[in-house]
Design the sequence.
C-alpha cells in the first residue's frame, strides 16, 4: 500500500553544502518531512528512533565524508532507498543519480520509490547504559599517553568512553583495561568515532571504540555486568 507524501520521513545528507538551501526548498514545496543531518552522530541517533523511507545524499557531501561516514553510507545503501543528488547551478535544477533508469529526478524518487518503501528503523548492536571504570592507553605497556575514565554505555562489540582529551583520534589503535573485570589483560581496540567536547549540543564528549581482540572470559564478565 502506497504511503502519502506527508507521511514520509526522508534523511537529507547535505552537510555544509551551498546547495543545501535548494534541497530544502524542494522538500518544503513538495510537502515532504525531512531531517537535514549535520553529523554522523546525528544521523545514527535519528536512524535509531525514527522510521525512515529514503535517503537523499548530496554528492559533494559524500565525497568529503570521513572514512567512518563513508562506511556508514555504504551500509545505508543496502538498507534504504538511497539517491545521490547535485545542484546544477547552470541549469538551476537538482540532478540525480539512481540505479533505476526510470527514476529521472528527485521528484520521481519521492513519488515512485519512497512512497512504496516501508519505513524502517536502523537496528544496531544493543547499547546498554553502564558506567565502568577504565584505563585507556596508546600502547599495551601503558607507558605512553594514558587516561583514567569511565564508560557511558557498552555493547557486544565495544564501549563508549567519556573523554575530552584531544589525544585520541578516529581509527587509532588503543588498549583498554576495565577495572570491574578480573583479567588485567589489555583489550585491543580501535577508535571508530570521536565526539569532541562542545561539537554536538547535548552530547557527551568521548570516543566510541570497537573490540578488536578480547578474551572470552572478559567478554563473559562484561555480558554479566551489562543490564538487560
Sequence:
Amino acid at each position: 500500500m502506497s504511503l502519502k507524501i506527508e507521511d514520509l520521513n526522508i534523511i537529507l545528507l547535505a552537510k555544509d553544502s551551498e546547495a543545501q538551501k535548494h534541497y530544502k526548498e524542494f522538500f518544503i514545496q513538495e510537502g515532504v518531512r525531512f531531517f537535514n543531518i549535520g553529523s554522523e552522530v546525528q544521523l545514527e541517533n535519528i536512524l535509531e528512533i525514527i522510521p525512515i523511507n529514503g535517503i537523499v545524499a548530496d554528492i559533494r557531501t559524500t565525497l568529503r565524508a570521513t572514512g567512518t561516514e563513508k562506511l556508514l553510507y555504504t551500509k545505508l545503501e543496502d538498507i534504504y532507498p538511497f539517491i545521490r543528488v547535485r545542484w546544477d547551478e547552470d541549469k538551476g535544477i537538482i540532478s540525480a543519480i539512481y540505479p533505476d533508469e526510470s527514476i529521472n529526478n528527485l521528484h520521481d524518487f519521492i513519488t515512485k520509490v519512497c512512497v512504496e518503501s516501508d519505513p524502517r528503523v536502523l537496528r544496531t548492536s544493543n547499547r546498554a547504559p553502564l558506567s565502568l571504570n577504565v584505563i585507556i592507553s596508546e600502547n599495551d605497556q601503558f607507558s605512553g599517553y594514558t587516561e583514567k575514565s569511565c564508560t557511558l554505555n557498552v555493547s557486544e562489540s565495544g564501549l563508549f568512553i567519556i573523554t575530552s582529551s584531544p589525544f585520541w583520534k578516529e581509527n587509532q589503535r588503543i588498549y583498554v583495561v576495565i577495572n570491574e573485570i578480573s583479567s588485567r589483560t589489555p583489550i585491543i581496540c580501535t577508535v571508530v568515532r570521536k565526539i569532541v567536547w562542545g561539537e554536538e549540543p547535548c552530547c557527551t564528549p568521548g570516543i566510541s571504540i570497537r573490540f578488536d581482540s578480547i578474551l572470552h572470559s572478559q567478554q563473559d564478565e562484561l555480558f554479566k555486568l551489562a543490564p538487560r
